[in-house]
Amino acid sequence: MNSKCVPYTINVGGRLTDLSSPCVMGIVNVTPDSFYTSISPIDSSFAEAVTQQVSTMLDEGATIIDIGGCSTRPNSEFADAATEQSRLTAALDIVRNTFPKCVVSVDTFRADIAEWCIHEYGVQIINDISGGNGAMYDVVAKEGVPYILTFNEPRNNDVDICRQALMFFADRVQQLRDRGAKDIILDPGFGFNKTLDENYELLNKLDALQMLELPILVGVSHKSMIYKLLDTTPEATLNGTTVLNTLALTKGANILRVHEVREAMECIKLTTK
């Protein structure tokens, strides 16, 4: 069983990052209300917890650390921009001072927050679960940072979910390229505006996205598509996460976005052997 990962390189902070072998993005949520693991900035042990989590992820093989300051779990009320910025400040201060060479992605849907993170902290990647808009596209194009474009569009019942994803990506990628954006990563957006069946249909046909000739990121870690199908809880879905990450690798995933790095690295080693 071999990974069908297509080789790509992306410019990350002025360095070419080789995606010919899949890599892992470790999730660091600095919010009090994420659906799974998170670290709250109001906790007295915040600095120690962030340092320990990032250190462990890097030691276990993470290539990218993805920091989020606004929970985007389904049916959640988004934190306002000031709160998101405050949380990101607390986390980025620690990460940049302790791990200066770490490749950092920020998970945000706000263009002004993205631009601020790039300017103030040298954040190298913007991860936008919203699908983006003109303002965000302008920022990532101007700053020349890789942009993770998420398929987060309400379902069009007249179109097959995979075809809809392809149409969505083709349109948004063109908008980004028209502005001068170069490094674009596609995220199918598992769990966002999709039914359980649609999530699995999209996962099973993930390799169809390769026709767009762009890297593919998959984020299924502990999501409802696992725990609802298995009738369990987010905390009990590490095994399910590993299974779906393995399937995603055989379908062409270049980046796995996960909470547990070691297990994801094992998936990569086993599927690329």
Indicate the low-confidence ranges by residue numbers. none
Characterize the overall form. globular
- The biggest beta sheet, please? 8 strands, parallel
Tell me the series of helices and strands, N- to C-terminal. EEEHEHEHEHEHEHEHHEH
Please identify, by name, the CATH architecture. Alpha-Beta Barrel
* Count of runs of 4 or more consecutive helical residues: 9
Number of strands: 10
Average pLDDT works out at 93
**Range of strand content:** 15-25%
Rg, rounded, reads 17 Å
Q: Kindly report the name of the CATH homologous superfamily.
A: Dihydropteroate synthase-like
CATH topology: TIM Barrel
Derived structural class: alpha/beta
Oligomeric form: single chain
- Cα-to-Cα separation, first versus last residue: 8 Å
If strands are numbered along the chain, what order do they take across the biggest sheet?
8-7-6-5-4-3-10-9
Estimated helix fraction:
25-40%
Work out the count of structural domains: 1
CATH class: Alpha Beta
Task: Provide structural commentary.
With about 270 residues, the protein is of the alpha/beta class. About 40% of the residues lie in helices and about 15% in strands. The chain has helices spanning about 45-60, 80-100, 110-120, 135-145, 160-180, 195-205, 225, 240-250, 260-270; strands at about 10, 15-20, 25-30, 65-70, 105, 125-130, 145-150, 185, 215-220, 255-260. Helix 3 (about 110-120) runs parallel beside helix 4 (about 135-145) and helix 4 crosses helix 5 (about 160-180). The model has no long low-confidence stretch (mean pLDDT about 95). The protein has 9 helices and 10 strands. It has an 8-stranded parallel β-sheet. The chain has a two-stranded antiparallel sheet with strand order 1-2.
